[in-house]
Design brief:
This protein has about 375 residues and is of the alpha/beta class. The chain is built from 16 helices and 11 strands. The chain has helices at about 20-30, 45-55, 60-70, 75-85, 100-110, 135-145, 155-160, 205-210, 235-240, 250-255, 275-280, 285-290, 305-310, 325-335, 335-350, 355-380, and strands spanning about 5-10, 35-40, 90-95, 115-120, 150-155, 170, 190-195, 220-225, 260-265, 295-300, 315-320. Helix 2 (about 45-55) packs antiparallel against helix 3, helix 8 (about 205-210) packs across helix 14 (about 325-335) and helix 12 packs across helix 15 (about 335-350). The mean pLDDT is about 90.
């Protein structure tokens, strides 16, 4: 069977060395033998993008964000049309994050191409969007959902928040392909726990946890990730103590995780982040389970990760934002080798089922094929 030709028209593009959605798209598209992909990307910076950059450089961040909402920088018609005519895609893929999904749905309509949209986070609630523009951005966000042939949601919470459209599928983020530890026979103190990922939204929580664990001789938390939002001097302090390692690429991180005994997954308790926490799903938890690490989730009861884990006791859940609560649970886990074994076994089993790399790639491929079939049926009906 010929591979599916996928044109990516998205603000988030595949990137093997990136993080978040960039890395997920790379795994879904560029590592999938059933797919041949091309990406619409900038060859030069247009005038409006330079204006936005200059405003930020001068310190006018609020003004630059408003300008971007009013006049989003989108690829030119010629750039997109030339690539469509040369590549001849079977389907168009976009991520409903940023602004290019607006262009994607218009191009799909113009060329009668099937459109698959990935909804991985609730973009209208991101801090990049000024409060005055959020209703407008949300209308565009929901319009992309309405005009897509298939909507791929990262969680059940996302599907519910979008109104449970009939064309929506829940597909978890594609994980890394990791070497799994089949057994954990050595349980030593201190328990080495890894946190890797977002240190902006979750930075203050992680700093609080590091400080609360400062006097613990049972648990050692080590952190990986870029640009931590910590108090002055904290980054140098934690780096000097070997607790902060900065950002490392996915392949190197996978090797590093082999040296740990558990992973910490964090989701925000901030009321302003509630909808984002109920709709997103932590890809870092998926990656931790590929390695077979026991997972501890620190987040509110309503967040997607806690709801998912509670269903079959697949991870420990700490729903109290006080750092003393996470310290207590981690120290209890450090002293309970049987519980570590149970959670490690749960992670390995989940990596083989819900979070299986090949299974998720097949689900994504089937979503593309379904969009193509829906689009063909619509065109036949119209003719």
């Amino acid at each position: 069977m010929d591979p599916i030709r996928v044109l990516v028209l998205s603000s988030v593009i595949p990137n093997a060395l990136g993080s978040g959605g960039e890395l997920i798209l790379h795994r879904c598209l560029e590592l999938n033998p059933r797919i041949e992909s091309e990406v619409v990307c900038w060859h030069q910076f247009p005038f409006r993008l330079k204006v936005i950059g200059k405003l930020r450089q001068l310190g006018f961040r609020s003004l630059s964000k408003a300008w971007e909402c009013l006049f989003p920088v989108l690829p030119t018609d010629k750039l997109v049309h030339d690539l469509i005519h040369s590549f001849r895609p079977d389907v168009l893929v976009t991520v409903a994050h940023g602004w290019w999904h607006i262009k994607a749905r218009k191009v799909a309509k113009q060329f009668t191409l099937p459109l698959v949209s990935l909804f991985q986070d609730w973009w209208p609630d991101f801090p990049e969007i000024p409060l005055a523009f959020r209703s407008r951005v949300e209308r565009e966000f929901r319009q992309t959902c309405a005009e897509s042939d298939v909507v791929v949601c990262v969680s059940d919470g996302m599907r519910r928040e979008l109104g449970e459209p009939e064309n929506a599928l829940v597909v978890h983020d594609a994980p890394s392909v990791a070497t799994r530890r089949e057994d954990q026979c050595e349980f030593q103190l201190p328990l080495r726990v890894a946190y890797f990922g977002n240190l902006s939204d979750y930075g203050p929580l992680i700093e609080n946890a590091l400080r609360a664990l400062n006097s613990s001789d049972q648990v050692r938390l080590e952190v990986f990730g870029p640009s931590p939002l910590w108090t002055a001097g904290a980054e140098d302090e934690f780096r000097s103590r070997g607790l902060y390692h900065g950002f490392i690429p996915s392949n190197e991180l996978t090797e590093s995780l082999q040296q740990f005994q558990a992973a910490l997954v964090v989701m925000s308790f901030a009321p302003s982040h509630r909808r984002r926490m109920t709709t997103s799903f932590p890809s870092k938890m998926i990656d931790a389970m590929q390695v077979g690490l026991p997972v501890v989730i620190w987040g509110p009861e309503y967040c997607s990760a806690v709801k998912w884990a509670r269903s079959r006791e697949r991870a420990l859940c700490v729903t109290d934002p006080n750092p003393s609560a996470i310290v207590r649970v981690l120290e209890e886990l450090a002293a309970a080798s049987a519980e570590q074994q149970r959670l490690a076994k749960s992670s390995r089993e989940t990596a083989e089922t819900d979070f299986n790399h090949e299974r998720i790639q097949a689900q994504f491929t089937n979503a593309l094929r379904r969009a193509i079939q829906v689009n063909c049926a619509e065109q036949t009906h119209m003719s």
